[in-house]
Design a protein that fits this description.
The protein is an alpha+beta fold. Helix content is about 25%, strand content about 40%. It has 5 helices and 9 strands.
C-alpha cells in the first residue's frame, strides 16, 4: 500500500510516503471525480479493507496522483482501477482544499482537482472489490438529504463537497428534485 504522493513539506512539493503524509497531516495533491447521468450521480461505498474510512460512501472516485502523474491521467487511471470505467470525457470543475480527520490518527489535508463527466444510462461499471464494496446512482437532492440525516455513513470529504462546493461541482443540477433514496 505504500506509495509516494506529491505533498508539501516546508513549502516544497516533493514525493513523500502516503501513510507518512496522512499521519503528519501534510497538505498533498488529490483528485476527485463525479460521474453523472441526467440528474443522478454515481457514488461508491469504500471497501471494508481500505486503510481509512472503510465502508463509507464517497463520490464516484478519489485518490492521490503518483509523483510525476498528471491530475487528469490520475483521474482516468482510478476510474479504470476502482470501477472499470474507461473512455470518459473528464472536465476539470475546479480546485478544493480541505482538512479532515479520517480516523485512526490519520488526516487528509488535500488540495483536490475535481473532475466531472456526464454519461449515458448504459454506462458499464465493474467495481474492483479491493477498492469498492458497492455503488449506487442517486440524484443530488436525495444524496444531500441522506447525508444530512446520516452523516456517519459518508466520508468527510463528500460531506464537505456537498456542504461547501455544490455549485462548482454540479452547476445547474445542484437544484434538481429528489426522487431516489440511497439503498444501502
Amino acid at each position: 500500500m505504500s506509495a509516494l504522493i506529491p505533498a508539501w513539506e516546508n513549502g516544497v512539493l516533493q514525493p513523500i510516503d502516503k501513510m507518512d503524509v496522512h499521519r503528519r497531516g501534510l497538505r498533498h495533491k488529490a483528485i476527485s471525480v463525479f460521474v453523472t447521468e441526467g440528474d443522478r450521480v454515481l457514488i461508491q461505498r469504500r471497501a471494508l479493507s481500505k486503510y481509512h474510512t472503510p465502508g463509507l460512501w464517497a463520490n464516484t472516485c478519489c485518490t492521490h496522483p503518483h509523483w510525476d502523474e498528471s491530475d487528469l491521467d490520475c483521474a482516468g487511471r482510478r476510474l479504470r482501477e476502482e470501477l472499470g470505467i474507461t473512455g470518459l470525457a473528464l472536465r476539470h470543475a475546479g480546485e478544493i482544499e480541505y482538512r479532515a480527520d479520517v480516523g485512526a490518527g490519520l488526516i487528509e489535508h488535500e488540495l483536490v482537482q475535481v473532475y466531472t463527466a456526464r454519461v449515458m444510462p448504459d454506462l458499464s461499471i465493474t467495481p474492483n472489490p479491493d477498492e469498492v464494496a458497492d455503488t449506487d446512482w442517486i440524484n443530488l437532492p436525495a444524496l444531500r438529504a441522506v447525508v444530512e440525516r446520516m452523516p456517519e455513513r459518508f466520508t468527510p470529504w463528500l460531506r464537505i463537497y456537498l456542504a461547501k462546493h455544490l455549485g462548482m461541482i454540479f452547476g445547474a443540477h445542484s437544484a434538481a428534485n429528489p426522487h431516489h433514496a440511497l439503498t444501502n
